[in-house]
Write a structure and sequence with these properties.
Memb_transporter_dom, transmembrane helix, globular, membrane, transmembrane
């Protein structure tokens, strides 16, 4: 049984998908690495050419995505990091114990400063192991030249494809929203809906970030991508409100044919979004299709039939009002997609993008100082990396290991900020290295010589960088022959050398596992109370912003408060996920955190429904007062969390909810009286008010229940060891 479970875990680990393959990226990076080698071999300068190829390899590892201006800025920083730390490694070359002291410091800083990354430590380590006679400054310039060559290749499409990153981001957002709509009408568990909804909002956020990296001049054509992103967001907001309304409507099961027509209508909206995504990708050359009017008309007819039946059977008009609300929401979603189509048909032309090459890298010294003062989890992990790298360097130096740098490199690249992630990375690295090294040694044994070396490096680079984002095990399998042969280009890879490297990789993995398991705790457990309090406060501010909108403040910062609330939830979720990957996770606490984040999502869903209502003229009754009371409760609960004070009483708003029910009942009676004079189909102000109030009643009752669950979140757990 244990063996079967272990085998299943290994199978899942090696087969899990981490991303999409990138064949163009693989081909370009392979060319960037192999061209310097070929030039060196043809001119008889193989040694210097290896350094240029290494510089290209380093920059390829750090190659960013996004708009080409942002890529240029990041590549500029990467080339500078490669040059400076190659010089630093060269300066301590020939002084092994000085290197044991210097490299761990570099590794610690690089773990805390994202713009340095593992590239800085890798450059330093490989510069340290070169012959002491190697010219330090010249080596740095050679690697800089290789890095600049790789940068030029990666930025070559800038002129002709400058809008491609933005187009791809917009298309991904449209596809993600369509994917969420596919499951929106489905009753039952919300798991798949929650997953797709989160993915859609994240895609919209990424599109907004990508658009923000372009330089706009304020012209109408340059504002079109922003308006397109907003229509995608609005479509998702309407979808969230529709899902909540359907939940209330299904309390009394609607006829089967009504559900079928609803699915068809939503599917037509999703299909138009997918056509739109395709049109964005191909610059609008693909037909965008019709407006889906037939599906909407059939859905309208089906809802009208059900409404007429319910009017005859029910003593109140609440169900029929909710049914009308559903129909209005579907029509608005279709209208948002139509506006998106019109924007795309007019074109997404854009001004030339200019990068800020001198912009300060993210993760500066101020943040570094703050992490040190607070002993943040990032700081703890960075110090853990430094200690583990120091141990590996000391072992390699003290034992005079021929390939001791592979021990250090394995520790550096395997140690993650959680024990579970470290285990997965070590397993993938050891397995991939073993397979890759054996393949390389076998190929060289069958066909020795520089031609085979270059061919193996080229093939390894193509497949390695293509599948690097898919699974780390694939990267290690294909990338290992490339790295082994590139770093030790002048030393043939015999079976003994391959065995040493596999053995040192295994030993480095054990050191990384020991460091992740035995060194001090990550400190994430102590973050839970503060992050949970931030979650409550951010949602309290969002509730107050919605209350202000109901009070007539059209400038209430609902968007900003929503983004703050999502960020607080993401931070708490990330902390709990990482805590769950530790050797002995507090399962009870993690369960309560998951309940809190789920309640927070439902609170935002309820508020999205209310925001949609607040954009119209609505007779809200006591809704504003209820929202203020909910916000006060969340704030009080947050204060109790951080101060360990007695938590506030349960959220009970019985009188206000009864007042809201009375308000709705009054609208119901007035509408029935009105119907006797104007007919049941007359669209009057009173009917609109009843529809809006019915939607508000369900959303408010759901909000009070969900806010109560959110406010009851508890962080108490056994102390961290």
């Amino acid at each position: 049984m244990v063996m079967r479970a272990a085998f299943a875990w290994l199978r899942d680990t090696y087969s899990e998908s981490e991303g999409q393959p990138a064949p163009v990226y693989g081909a370009v990076t392979a060319v960037g690495i192999i061209v310097p080698l070929l030039v060196g071999l043809l001119t008889g300068h193989a040694g210097p050419s290896v350094l240029a190829a290494l510089g290209a390899f380093y920059v390829a590892l750090a190659a960013p995505g996004g708009p080409y201006g942002a890529r240029a800025r990041a590549l500029f920083v990467a080339v500078a990091v490669v040059t400076v730390f190659t010089w630093l490694g060269g300066l301590v070359n020939g002084h092994p114990w000085l290197a044991v002291a210097v490299v761990p410091v570099v590794a610690t800083l690089a773990s805390m400063l994202p713009w340095m990354g593992a590239t800085a430590t890798l450059c330093t380590v490989l510069a340290v192991i070169r012959p002491a006679s190697s010219p330090v400054i010249f080596d740095g310039f050679l690697e800089m030249a290789g890095g600049l060559f790789m940068s030029a290749l990666l930025l070559a499409p800038w002129i002709t494809h400058r809008l491609r990153p933005l187009r791809m981001s917009l298309a991904e957002a449209a596809d993600a929203v369509a994917s969420a709509l596919d499951v929106l009408p489905d009753p039952g568990p919300d798991d798949e809906w929650i997953r797709r909804r989160a993915k859609a909002y994240e895609a919209v956020r990424q599109a907004r970030v990508t658009y923000g990296l372009y330089r706009t001049g304020g012209r109408d054509d340059q504002e079109r991508p922003r308006r397109l992103i907003e229509t995608f967001r609005r479509t998702m907001d309407e979808g969230v409100a529709l899902r909540a309304t359907l939940g209330a409507l299904r309390a009394e099961p609607p006829p089967e044919h009504w559900e079928q027509e609803l699915r068809v209508a939503i599917s037509s909206v999703a299909a138009r979004l997918r056509l739109l995504a395709g049109a964005i990708e191909v610059r609008g050359e693909r037909p965008l299709g019709g407006n889906g009017g037939v599906a909407l008309e059939r859905f309208g007819e089906a809802t009208e039939e059900v409404r007429q039946d319910w009017l005859a059977e029910h003593s109140d008009l609440i169900s029929t009002a909710l049914l009308l609300r559903v129909r209005q929401t579907v029509v608005r979603m279709a209208g948002a997609v139509d506006r998106s189509r019109q924007i795309v048909e007019r074109g997404l032309s854009f001004g030339f993008e200019v990068p800020h090459l001198l912009e300060r890298p993210a993760g500066g010294w101020t943040r570094l100082k703050q992490d040190i003062i607070t002993r943040s989890p990032g700081f703890r992990h960075a110090v853990r990396v430094g200690v583990a790298v120091a141990a590996a360097m000391a072992l390699g130096t003290g034992l005079k290991l021929t390939y001791g740098h592979w021990l250090t490199i394995t520790v550096l690249l395997s140690l993650r900020d959680s024990y579970g992630d470290t285990v997965k990375r070590v397993v993938k690295r050891v397995g991939g290295t073993a397979i890759g090294a054996i393949i390389a040694a076998l190929a060289l044994a069958l066909a020795p010589g520089e031609t085979t070396l270059v061919a193996l490096i080229f093939i390894g680079a193509i497949f390695g960088f293509t599948f690097r984002s898919v699974n780390h095990a694939y990267w290690m399998t294909f990338g290992t022959p490339m790295v082994l042969l590139l770093v030790d280009f002048s030393n043939a890879l015999y079976w003994s050398a391959a065995g040493w490297r596999i053995g040192l990789t295994f030993a480095g993995g054990l050191i990384a596992l020991a460091a992740a398991r035995a060194l001090w705790p990550t400190g994430r457990l102590r973050l839970i109370p503060g992050e949970l309090a931030d979650l409550l406060r951010s949602h309290a501010r969002l509730v107050r912003a919605v209350a202000a909108r109901f009070g007539g403040d059209i400038d209430a910062p609902i968007r900003r408060r929503t983004e703050d609330a999502v960020a607080a939830e993401t931070e708490l979720e990330d902390t709990s996920n990482r805590l769950g990957r530790e050797p002995t996770p507090p399962e009870d606490l993690l369960g309560r955190v998951r309940e809190a984040t789920a309640a927070a999502r439902r609170v935002r869903d309820d508020l999205k429904t209310l925001v949609a209502l607040a954009e119209e003229e609505v007779d809200a009754g006591p809704v504003g007062t209820i929202l203020d009371r909910v916000a006060d409760h969340l704030d009080a609960r947050a204060d109790a969390l951080v101060s360990d004070a007695e938590p506030p009483a349960e959220l009970t708003l019985g009188e206000l909810l009864e007042e809201l029910d009375d308000h709705l009942s009054g609208l119901d009676r007035r509408r029935r009286d009105e119907m006797s004079g104007v007919g049941i189909d007359a669209v009057t102000t009173l009917r609109r008010l009843l529809v809006q109030a019915a939607g508000a009643r369900h959303a408010v009752r759901s909000l009070v229940a969900d806010a109560g669950r959110l406010g009851s979140a508890d962080h108490r757990s056994p102390s961290e060891p």
